[in-house]
Give the backbone structure.
Amino acid sequence: MKRTEFEDILILETPYYKNLRTTYRDTVNFQRYLPILKKISNGDAFVKTLAQKQGKELVYLGRKIFSLQDEFVTTYIQFLSDTSMVDKWERFFERYREQLFEIYEAFVGQDSYKVFVFEVVNRKLLRDLITKYTINEPLERKIIISERVGVVVNQLFTYVRHSLTKDIRVNDQLLIDSYGHLPLLPRCSHSETLRLLSGSFLEQGIPEPLFSQMAMSIMSAYYMETKQKVITALNQTTTLSKESILDILKSHFFFPDDKALNELHGLLRDKAQDMLNDLRVKKAKVDTDILTLKQKVKEITQNLKDQLIHLAENFSTEESIDNAVKKLQRNLITHGYELRHLKNQYQDYVKKENELKSVLKSKPHDLLTYIFKNEWDPYIILLFNQDRKFPDDDIQAMIKGVYDDVKKDKVAVEILNKSKVSGFLKEKYDSQVLNEYFREAIRNIVVPLIKAFLLEEMIDYYPKMTGPATHEGIRYLAEEALAGRVNVIEKKMPVVPEQSAISAPVIAQYRKLVSVLTYDIRGSTFMGTKLRDARRESEIRKYFQEYMLGVIEKFSGIPIKDTGDGGIVVFAENSHDIKTKGVTELAPGSTLTAVRCGLEMVRAAKSFVQENIDRYSDWFRESEERKVDFEGATYATLPPSYQTIFQIGVGIASGTYPREVYCDANAFGELDLTGMLVRESNFYSKVKAISKSTVICDDATVYNMLLNTNKFSFLNEQGLRIDPMLLDIEQGLEYWINQKISRRGFILDLYKIFVSQLGQEVTRPGSLKLMLGMFDLELSETGEIKDGKGGRGKFLFEVASEATK
């Protein structure tokens, strides 16, 4: 497996990509409705294949098929309005059929699964087009259009399946059962859909108004039965936010009445009050910790103030006062960040407190905003209760309630009268017969309707009719198409099939890591040579190190060792506890803070030179070379050798604790690190570039960042020159496919961090092999990268605040 292939698999597990998948494959609806489709499809092979997907099947429709179906709908609607256009319709239909057949054959090939995909997605497109062109039509007109178009479409696809798939083994029973006897319905409300099917209900012996009333009775009863399930789920939840309430309510087919709303609202209020009481205890403790730390800051500030007064009264050099000031600044920054950590925790509690208070202030009907409902949900409830029998009294009462609507249609009255029987003193309707007609209507109309709706819900197409696709939607579609996970009709796209899957434990290995950062002051030897004054050199180094420590404290790094010409720092999730509570075990987390710290150290090193150029003439006055005139110099005009004095090399190595790095007190009682990460980060810090500081990190650091960031994109030269927001969907697909194929790294968009593959050969004798380029790799069971011979290996990346060339 090559590095890029491994990265492609790892990318699928990043939170950013999972969020894209959830959004654009609509995994919530997919998981909600797939079990129902499986239940009513009787083990159909197409549905079994769908069940292996992680979300909706995606289809990209070329311009030709899109415009062809649009023209089909508009032309046929015109023909229905003016039958004298029959010649025009027949000429069009002949051309339409030929072009559709051509597109069908090119897409389907010998794949029976694609037979279903093509038909279902085209039926979904046609349904959306019917909706668009009949939205303002009266009900009677909609009935005619949907029935007549349905007949033509059913005949067409039946002919296509039977004539063009002779050499493919296709069991099309699911398609016949779903679409074979129904009109092509536009998207509309539940009640309007039933009215559009009024003719179908009459064929089953029951008028639509009576069926609708019986259906409403079942739905009301079912909603009450699901109430207890919702109550149980709310009682078991450990959080009470808008999101958690929404997750519970949308996972049930639950549409409560006023009484149920009041009961749920009372439950939520009681639970919110109990959680609020517990939260206030935690909030009070954090408040106490904040006050304690503030007092500590006052004491430290006073001690350092006394030290500064002493240095001023016993003045020796500027650097000694500068160092004391830097120490004061660093201590203030350290405790400032600790205070910020506690305040953030306090604000989190305040946020949760406000959420709970909003629950306490809410009204029962506010819960209606959380109710999750699709147009076919009521039919699914009928499916769950299709064998229910209504008592005779209920049937008679419902007929009486809807009779005014029934008598508007003479045929409906005739059909209903066939169910009349003699009763005591007066005629009534045969409830047993009507119960059977109702069940037959569910089996022959509602079940096929659910199958059709759910089949179309399992598939989504692009471009959308509702408007232009989002920038991220196009990117996701492109990357999925490149991996062969999108059905592309008409358009040709490159496909790089996904390699064998990597086990979850291997990916998990990179999700939480400890990072070791080593930095090396590039020009330290040159500075010592020029100064020829060990005391001054020590003072300047210490002054520079205060700059670096200020940055390290800002990012919650734990300084371990001052190496003289650099330092060693460790980053762990529990840095606050290590600093304040004497903890030595390093908790793994995100490597992002270490990388951001390294970049900030590079900026601070450059700032150090710019801020202290006016001191160069004093610092280097004993230099052998008196040719350099420091008066009025700027960073840009400094000789290269003097620019590099305070450039740094930062190396970051990340791995697991305690296998790759271990932290404990050394023989002198000081915190110390041992392990491979210490040696490797030191090696990376020695990687040099011409005229600049560098931040070099290993693959584990980069992969951890990807697995812990909410947005990233690919780094390549074209992407830096083109704004994808200005591209249409076809151009956008080509852009993002090229971005992934030709990438040379990543961009963490939210932080403006550019990560590029290291562009030079670096070798090190010993156990570590640095693999630069498209080398084959192997993964151990623990997720460790191995080279072709089984030795430990790592890929290196350069990290920068701007794209490196």
User: Anything to note?
Assistant: The mean pLDDT is 86. The CA atoms of residues 555 and 597 lie 6 Å apart. The chain has 31 helices and 20 strands. The radius of gyration is 36 Å.
